[in-house]
Amino acid sequence: MDYEGFFGNAIAGLHREGRYRVFTDLERHRGGFPKATHHSPGGLREVTVWCSNDYLGMGQHPKVLAAMHEALERCGAGAGGTRNISGTNHYHVLLERELADLHGKESALLFTSGYVSNWAGLGTLAARLPHCAVFSDAENHASMIEGIRYSRAERHVFRHNDPEDLDRKLALIEPGRAKLVAFESVYSMDGDIAPIDEICDVAEKHGALTYLDEVHAVGLYGARGGGVSERMGLAHRLDVIEGTLGKAFGVQGGYITGSAQLCDFVRSFASGFIFTTSLPPAVAAGAAASIRHLKESEAERARHRDRVSRVRAALDAAGIPTLPNRSHIVPVMVCDPVLCKAISDTLLDEFGIYVQPINYPTVARGTERLRITPSPLHSDEDIDHLVDALSTIWRRIGLRQEAAE
Ligand code: PMP
To answer: Subunit composition (predicted)?
Structure first.
């Protein structure tokens, strides 16, 4: 087999479709977010980042940095092992307590990322519950889909955010069988929010466990940052609340929370938990500091909401097409992969604005977009600059389209 030829052809196909991924080489600076230095063959340049998942800028918060420095000085760099063999550091234990408390659950279990927590957590439950049928929202994240695939459990995909479809599908399964409903609170690309209460009603009616991914909501929603389930007073109805420490909490890692028995079960059987080196203690310390801060402080969330509404209002006023939703995610719809990449390139090269194009398979073909994520640290000037730049580009596209007609 011509391996190199095969690799080259596959990559050429991505280029042809306009969805070859180019990583933007950034250097973030302590205290400088949302500005960063862009390293490119043309040299170094300061850019404004508009697509970070460090939603609240906590990755640079002084309390988080201080906690990480302190833990680094006390414990050194790595955890020194898997959780099972010498790698359970006291900072992990403290962080798990903090997480259980955040969601009002008995226990929490840490993983090295949100992806791994879904893949291993959901995957282990689906694989080990006897003859389990899994019900997965059609828009679920790749990490849940892969976890379900890995489990080899019977999978039923229900229509996105559609409790009635879920109800119909659950009704087809024998009453006594194990069932697991997996869904998200805030969907990352459209920014829409699940009807958690109705999904819980349906799951309860059919005796199914509920597994909620709150990756894009923890830290941001609820009076203590416990996510949409906290805001809606529904945390107690969810068997598993899963989240990340890498987005609003600004650090790295993932977790599940649930009953003591359920977490102990996953801890005991999930290979993605057992057979991997645990997070560095400094990372666990930083994440715990971030969670503690956001449990008490509403200031970041309030300013975040204010920035999101300002961005939305300015884009609407400028006639830039966005997808309406009730979350903090602002998708600017381009609906063409090549154009989406070209707009992103122009924003970066001409205006010093970085927004990564989002193409298939992250979103469906024909719905390519720029996913804009305002943060509390974006200034009025940053917002005006973004909207002016997009308006200029939109005018140009309009002119070009008219010329082609
Ligand atoms: N769940 C959802 C819905 C996500 O969007 C992501 C990451 N984009 C993850 C899980 C994985 O989280 P992490 O980045 O911490 O691996």
So the answer is: Homodimer.
- pLDDT value for 400: 59
- pTM assigned to the model: 0.96
Question: Ligand 1 test: best mutation among 115, 136, 240, most atoms within 8 Å of CB?
Answer: 115
Residues annotated catalytic, as ranges: 247
Q: Is the dihedral of CA 153, 156, 157, 161 positive or negative?
A: negative
User: Region 64-72: what's the mean pLDDT?
Assistant: 98
From ligand 1's centre to the CA of 122, what distance in Å? 13
CB atoms within 10 A of CB 271: 12
The closest-lying atom of ligand 1 relative to the alpha carbon of residue 246 is 15
Cβ of 136 less than 6 Å from ligand 1: no
Q: What is the pLDDT of residues 248-266, one digit of tens each?
A: 999 999 999 999 999 999 9
